[in-house]
Amino acid sequence: MASEFSIIEKYFKPISVINSTNVGIGDDGAVISLPKNKQLVIVTDTSICGVHFPKKTPPFAIGWKSLAVNLSDLAAMGADPAFFSLALSLPAELNNEQWLTAFSTGIKTLADKYKVCLVGGDTTKSTVLSITITAHGWVSENTAILRSTAKAGNLIFVSGNIGDGGGGLKGIESCLDKLNTPEPRVKLGLNLLGLATSAIDISDGLLSDLKHILKASKVSARINYDVLPMSVSIKNYIQQTEQYCFPLTCGDDYELCFTIAQEKLAEITAIEKLTAVSLTCIGEVVTGESANIDITSNNAVIQNKLDSCKFAGFKHFF
Amino acid sequence: MASEFSIIEKYFKPISVINSTNVGIGDDGAVISLPKNKQLVIVTDTSICGVHFPKKTPPFAIGWKSLAVNLSDLAAMGADPAFFSLALSLPAELNNEQWLTAFSTGIKTLADKYKVCLVGGDTTKSTVLSITITAHGWVSENTAILRSTAKAGNLIFVSGNIGDGGGGLKGIESCLDKLNTPEPRVKLGLNLLGLATSAIDISDGLLSDLKHILKASKVSARINYDVLPMSVSIKNYIQQTEQYCFPLTCGDDYELCFTIAQEKLAEITAIEKLTAVSLTCIGEVVTGESANIDITSNNAVIQNKLDSCKFAGFKHFF
Fold this sequence. Notes:
With 318 residues, chain A is α+β, with helices and mostly antiparallel strands. The first copy, chain A, folds into 2 domains: 137 residues, CATH 3.30.1330.10; 152 residues, PurM-like C-terminal domain (Phosphoribosyl-aminoimidazole Synthetase, Chain A, domain 2, Alpha-Beta Complex), CATH 3.90.650.10. Chain A has 10 helices and 12 strands. Chain A has a 7-stranded mixed β-sheet. Chain A has a 4-stranded mixed β-sheet with strand order 2-5-3-4. In chain A, helix 3 links the parallel strand 3 and strand 4. In chain A, helix 2 runs parallel beside helix 3. Chain A is globular and about 60 Å long. The interface between A and B is large, with 68 and 68 residues. Strand 1 of chain A pairs antiparallel with strand 2 of chain B, so a sheet runs across the interface.
């Protein structure tokens, strides 16, 4: 079994590539030089075995996803990801070369892709595997995309498909990659700067997360169920189970939901090409401070059919 | 039982006092404006129930100490603490008003004292109570106190007393406050800027942490056992148990160990007055890349008497 210091030296220092003006792993803290005319964006997400991912999740995927969920939050702010700290609580039975190599490779593969570096953290023993990452990015001053600035009349978009993350949890084979190694929409977030009036990632489920935007912006929304983007697998799952709200509430999708002014609609096609991510207009923001969401199908409100939704989303306590 | 969002709203938003140019709790991430000519210092420490603090620790102390251990790391860098994120993994049996109030008050009391604010985080359920804080501070460019810059001939100092943290763990009544609500040496760290050639906090034990400085700086040290600062309780404990190395290795002391050039010795008295913290010269840095520590008593090396030390320190895995 490796000591805390040898784990850091062997598995985590290689993820820490930092330029000479900065100090990274190996001191009490990291020292980071600041770019001019930028603001710092900070996000934190904890992933616990058995709560946020199933026990059988491969260690590569645990590493990848622990970082991906944080980069997804940075993307929702329009931030350019830069560096992160990693707090790893490790049960004794996972303190072995095989597990640590796969886990750290999962983090490193995604970190390299988005050029973010590990600057520090803490490795401790625990009875439960738990990973907390605090990720940091930069935005130009006063450009961060917030939740509180959606306006009535804005169009509501969602990237990619919804429901695949939940489909993976249900064991649908074709959804497993989306569940285990989701792609954070970093490039999309950067391209939404100056365009989106609000954004959020839909990790807790589309309805639950859209509601955060509506509450913060003091508006309501109308969503067209018929145009919701779903994979064939999820459409089949709904047909078989009649769980119509599944993709709206299942969570574990790392797509962005965002709003834009109607007159900006023409810009969407260019962003789709640039990012290679499909963007679907699923409805519009309407007046009404109650943060209500009406869901329509064939131009009629179908709330009844969706009663079981109850805007549940993923919640940790009840 | 409260939901994640109501816990954040009720207990953690009050710790989040942030000025109008910044965005704090309630969006995907926090947005922080950057001061000019500064660098950002980032530290991360995880505290797990049963590993880093005993199960019977009062929740006020758990909150206080979780933040204190992070501020102590910032102090060791000479950083001015500014803000932090909090990842709380909470077992269901602690999700109640009494526990959450005491825990959040512990954090808030210390946060208010050092004017640091909570900018975000993540609250999740778990079977094990675990708190990860990532704390951020500012230093003027290229002034952070590192571990790697101690020089042979430098004097080695330690603040306060050593051994009280470990004494608290042994149940010594007069040491419990030092164990449960340690005072991070923030003001001392700030006053060491431009003076100390290296610094570290001795949370893992004086010998273990001093060794980190020696390794990083490629030097060795000679320590005078006879002058080590200890409380009467710890002196009595040593006399009764003959565990001479206890205060050197017990850990859980949140004092600073630092080095200064000999010609700067006169400045120490002024800093003691300014910070109201006693500073003791316990030895000196000597040449030798092996990071060896000789411990002397009555001018003789007494390694034999201290054999049981083995520079153990607090380690998570063996």
